[in-house]
Design a protein that fits this description.
Layout (H helix, E strand, L loop, with lengths): L2 E12 L38 H13 L3 E2 L2 E2 L1 E5 L9 E5 L5 E9 L5 E13 L3 E5 L2 E5 L6 E7 L6 H18 L11 E11 L9 E6 L2 H20 L7 E6 L4 E7 L9 E2 L6 E2 L2 H9 L5 H12 L3 H8 L2 H12 L4 H19 L10 H12 L5 H13 L4 H7 L8 H14 L1 H8 L6 H11 L6 H12 L1
Parallel strand pairs: 12-13
Antiparallel strand pairs: 1-10, 1-11, 2-6, 3-16, 4-5, 4-15, 6-7, 7-10, 8-9, 11-12, 13-14
The protein binds adenosine-5'-diphosphate, magnesium ion and zinc ion.
Amino acid sequence: MKYEVVIGLEVHAQLLTNSKMFCSCSTKYGALPNSNVCPVCTGQPGTLPVLNSKAVEYAVRTALAFNCKVNHQSIFARKNYFYPDLPKGYQISQYDEPLAVQGIISISLSDGAQKSIGVTRVHLEEDAGKNIHDDHGSYVDFNRSGVPLVEIVSEPDMRSPQEAVSYFKKLRSILGCIETSGCNMEEGNLRCDANVSLMLKGSKKFGTKVEIKNLNSFRFLEKALSYEVQRQTELLDAGKTIEQETRLFDSVKGLTKSMRKKEEANDYRYFPEPDLAPLILDENYINKVRSSMPELPDAKKERLTTRYSLSDYDAEVISSDKDLAAYYEDLVSNGLEPKLSSNWIQTEVMRVLNERKQGILEFPISSKSLSELIKLVKEGKINQNTAKDVFNEMLNGGKNADQIVADKGLSQIQDESEIEKIVDQVIASSPEQVQQYKSGKTNLMGHFVGSVMKQSKGKANPQVVNAILKKKLG
Ligand code: ADP
Ligand code: MG
Ligand code: ZN
């Protein structure tokens, strides 16, 4: 391709406060429409906003986690526009004096190298309500209006849809770690607008950007950006120009559609919010928030790599979720080898979590129970395949591995004479294959091992089976 892709993201994350940003209404998701509302968040005349200090604390924590410089003074501003879900006729946001600036989020590229993506700014703003359209008409639900958000704006530093996805994933992993946002993309509390443009390779001057609004999954982000890169490429190749505009992604059709021609900042007639004082945060306050910061994913990855000699890749997967990392470290502290523990987590455990769309906190097998199962394999009491069956059984009931193995008689057969009997049977029942094997078709070994394992109901020790077969077949 002769073009270089340029991408910048604007991410909105709902802060995990119990009450809204400027009133005491609940932020609880899924409440009856318009049940979490009051005169303030529905913009009644004569009401005044009161700033939620928890929202400020969470926003500062978020900014610090992205290595931002937190401003000692920031200013709330009115962003004016008219829309049914915005009862005041303006949104309280921050404009030319945001909460924090100049951060960095580091991402891993596909070849394992690290790349720093600049964070331009982090600011506080309130969410709008929600318009709902169905067959009977159009409705507005104000439960969401006034819910606190942070907006995290990146520099145009990403050079492919994949980098944009890595950035968004990393951002979510950090937010999850510092517990300032629920990061539930299905419930809409983490979403992003993606800005994308093309320029000729080697050029220094960015092309005209298009903004794709409200992407609420990693897959949609990737698809929308890929579609848009393709669309812009075709336009430029045909000698046309790109119009600056806002587009919407249609996830069913897999394409973007024009929503509106781009508005300029002055269309919003920003001005300082007269009902709120400047937000003053002194160094003491900022340091206090900083000192309560948990270990962040990058530091965790570093520590897992050195402490447990994990590969970069393994350490990254495990450190991306702090609860998963805690589960992992519990497994290791129960006496299992670090690499073996990591393998179990990345294969069996993560498979189940993905299938069930659950987090490790909802996983039914405790780290202690899982370590008992893995120990049975290590001690040769059961083989790897049986262990997977036992694992599946443990998922469904509350039984531990020992019980399941005993109840179902799954203990591995170690006894050589017992295994030898089965081997003899298999050899006796397949004279043709034995002949072929002896005349050089040695890859039939797999067939013999398989038959023996099958006859033993998967319980024979595979090493012993192999050894006996080799001896008998010569
Ligand atoms: P606007 O005022 O239109 O919102 P901003 O300068 O605030 O534009 O940038 C919004 C987002 O768009 C940022 O994430 C920024 O990195 C990104 N961006 C800016 N210019 C470009 C460009 N030419 N191509 C791609 N992304 C861009
Ligand atoms: Mg913007
Ligand atoms: Zn309210």
